[in-house]
Write a structure and sequence with these properties.
708 residues; elongated; single chain; alpha/beta; 6-stranded parallel β-sheet
Length: 708
């Protein structure tokens, strides 16, 4: 179906204050079928007058221009072009409370085109957020400022997610919208809706070029996320120049094929009524996400640089700033905001009224639905239920040894019973990853209250969507799964999770050459080392059921730190000496000489190689050596321990320290003097044959210890 087109004539000669056309009286915005039909005084749209709208839009533009100019670094063009749609959205449509940026039922906004960050900083400043004062705008891109080069959720209140790597933001928006749809389906009651907000996003051509956006957009259409409204800033400029040199597809047609409702505002520079109407129409479509293609002129108002890549990623320069001020009749100094603009755009009073209205609804909900209210309030508090960790099982050597991916399945199904926010799934590998929650069905368009997510073969989109779910900050704890090797497809999203402190649990099975016959295309080698290099990422490689339980305990507790669990395909025995408490230390003694006592040899193992180290220790003990075996399921947790503890477990004065892990030796030099592992690609064969071929054996560990 062809997109709905909302258009008015547009020309470059309209780059002046008079270019902003008359703003007509607002139309009522249709709300979702899940929402109450009533519209309170606090939520009624009251558009600014024509002249005041012009002033507000130009204030957005010039705060961005001035910020980039002062920093002599940044991207002024996008804020200049996107100012009209942003003004309509923030001034008339979105509900939020700038004095409480964490208010649960606020609308979420994502600037997927994060390079245009002065746009969101300008909006936060103008609408009354304390996080972005005038001084912060003047410190754009400076050390320790609240206005970094790209939006960072952990730096600036009001920035929901961290964007910059193009395509990630639109995927995060899908995750935010999924979280809203899921919670609304679980908790809303007729006439008493405590979950009722939209997710808005602005993305550009670069976001649409990145493949990850297509993965997430395809899922959003499949899931029918009707409260996701995305503005596509169609300015036809990228760093290399006009996009027709590399990007000529019909984006709206592609999104329509994904199952989105699509519209086109042909004049995004001046047609405020067209933008307003497009949002109204988007809200009427409750069973599909909406794409509003808004054709804009990048750097709108700049006489000599508009509609060129020159305005994309560099300051305008003093002469062009002056020319733009004259062209748009902006007779104000740097960072100056007219009083009437501040009065119109500050939403502190309106936001407080919106939150108060919601609090009244929540109070009614508590009274009428006390049990549901208890669960809901616990969720949005982001505090874990008391005693939740007691659900995690423990094991002894009498319990059958199985693969840690099977132990993981046990943990997931135990956790979903005590953690109402536990939600997740796999990239088309659920039967192999063992990630289905048996007590729950699939989250689908017609069953959004369910908790198993089916991502299909979309690893990168999966990771970025889960980041959005985590950063919804509503108590949902997302996990996602694939084979460990396929983290190569989703590393960008995992790095953003670490940077943005999104507590996603990455369940990665088939952790080594131990997966066997699938061969080197599927056998991780460098992956453990590479994720251990990533800041703020916990990497676990448990050796049995107790350590798998410990990995999940820590992963659930660390809500501001993502985790990666590397789990085995092959079985391994449960040990009497492993423990959840040991995992929390990162490394601990599981056999032989106790911590702090003198020994001749220290053997360090992870995962399936811990058993190998124990067998090697027994052989060395037979030759009169005093041996300590250390299981090291999490290097990062070990590094958090005191110097005394670390020395008691791995004493660097012991000359014979050998590490054994069926992976790259990279990084092990910090702990051991010799490593038994693999630094080349694997091969296709049964696991025992591969371990023998590559010399990852008890004999090799013994020989390495004797050589030191």
């Amino acid at each position: 179906m062809a997109p709905i087109v909302t258009s008015r004539s547009s020309s470059l000669s309209a780059r002046s204050a008079s270019a902003v056309r008359s703003v007509r009286s607002a139309r009522g915005v249709a709300r979702s079928s899940r929402s109450s039909p009533r519209v309170s005084a606090a939520t009624t749209i009251a558009p600014a007058s024509t002249e005041l709208a012009t002033q507000c839009i130009n204030a957005i533009r010039f705060l961005a221009i001035d910020g980039v100019e002062k920093a002599n670094s940044g991207h002024p063009g996008l804020p200049m072009g996107c100012a009209p749609m942003s003004f309509i959205l923030w001034d008339e449509v979105m509900k939020f409370n700038p004095k409480n940026p964490d208010w649960f039922n606020r609308d979420r906004f994502v600037l997927s085109a994060g390079h245009g960050s002065m746009l969101i900083y300008s909006m936060l400043h103008l609408t009354g957020y304390d996080s972005v004062a005038k001084e912060d705008l003047m410190s754009f891109r400076q050390l320790d400022s609240k206005t970094p080069g790209h939006p960072e959720n952990f730096m600036t209140a009001g920035c929901e997610v961290t964007t910059g790597p193009l395509g990630q933001g639109i995927c995060n928006a899908v995750g935010l919208a999924l979280a809203e749809a899921h919670l609304a389906a679980r908790f809303n009651k007729p006439g008493c809706e405590v979950v009722d907000h939209y997710t808005y996003c602005i993305m550009g051509d670069g976001c649409n070029m990145e493949g990850v956006s297509g993965e997430a957009a395809s899922l959003a259409g499949h899931w029918g996320l009707g409260k996701l409204i995305v503005f596509y800033d169609d300015n036809k400029i990228s760093i290399d120049g006009h996009t027709d040199i590399s990007f000529t597809e019909d984006v709206s047609a592609r999104y329509a094929a994904y199952g989105w409702h699509t519209q086109h505002v042909e004049d995004g520079n001046t047609d405020l009524e067209g933008i307003r109407k497009a949002i109204e129409e988007a809200k009427k479509v409750t069973d599909k996400p909406s794409l509003i293609k808004v054709s804009t002129i990048i750097g709108y108002g700049s006489p000599n640089k508009a509609d060129s890549h020159d305005v994309h990623g560099a300051a305008l320069g003093p002469d062009e700033v002056a020319a733009t001020r004259a062209n748009l009749n902006w007779n104000y100094s740097e960072f100056e905001v007219p009083e009437e603009v501040s009065g119109q755009m500050d939403k502190s009073e309106k936001g407080a009224a919106l939150e108060a209205e919601w609090e009244a609804t929540l109070a009614k909900y508590e009274k009428e639905f006390p049990e549901d209210a208890k669960v809901f309030k616990q969720l949005i508090s982001r505090e874990l239920p008391a005693g939740w960790e007691k659900c995690l099982p423990t094991y002894t050597s009498e319990d059958k040894g199985i693969a840690t991916r099977l132990h993981s399945q046990t943990m997931l199904n135990a956790l979903c019973e005590v953690l109402p926010g536990f939600i997740g799934g796999s990239a088309d590998l659920a039967p192999s990853n063992m990630t289905l929650m048996k007590a729950h069905g699939d989250f689908q368009k017609d069953s959004p209250a369910e908790r198993n997510l089916r991502f299909g073969v979309r690893e990168h989109g999966m990771g970025a969507i889960c980041n959005g779910i985590a950063l919804h900050n509503s108590g949902l704890i997302p996990y996602c799964a694939t084979f460990f090797i396929f983290t190569d497809y989703m590393r960008g999203a995992m790095r953003v999770a670490a940077l943005s402190e999104a507590g996603v649990i990455h369940v990665m099975t088939h952790d080594s050459i131990g997966l066997g016959e699938d061969g080197p295309t599927h056998q991780p080698i460098e992956h453990l080392a590479s994720f251990r290099c990533m800041p703020n990422m916990l990497v676990f490689r448990p050796c049995d059921g107790n350590e798998t339980a410990g990995a999940y305990k820590v992963a659930v507790e660390r809500r501001n730190m993502p985790s990666t669990l590397a789990l085995s395909r092959q079985g391994m025995p449960n040990m009497d000496t492993t423990s959840i408490a040991g995992v929390e230390k990162g490394a601990y003694v599981v056999y032989g000489v106790a911590a702090g006592e003198s020994c001749d040899v220290i053997l360090i193992g992870t995962g399936s190689e811990v058993e190998m180290c124990v067998d090697a220790a027994k052989e060395l003990e037979g030759e009169g050596k005093k041996v300590r075996v250390v299981s090291m399921p999490c290097v990062e947790l070990f590094e958090e321990q005191s110097a005394d503890y670390k020395k008691s477990v791995i004493d660097p004065s012991v000359s014979a320290i050998v590490s054994c892990e069926a992976a790259s030796s990279f990084g092990w030099g910090a702990y051991s003097n010799a490593h038994v592992g693999i630094d080349g690609f694997g091969a296709s064969a049964p696991a025992p044959a591969l371990y023998k071929k590559f010399g990852i054996t008890v004999e090799a560990v013994v020989a390495a210890a004797k050589s030191l």
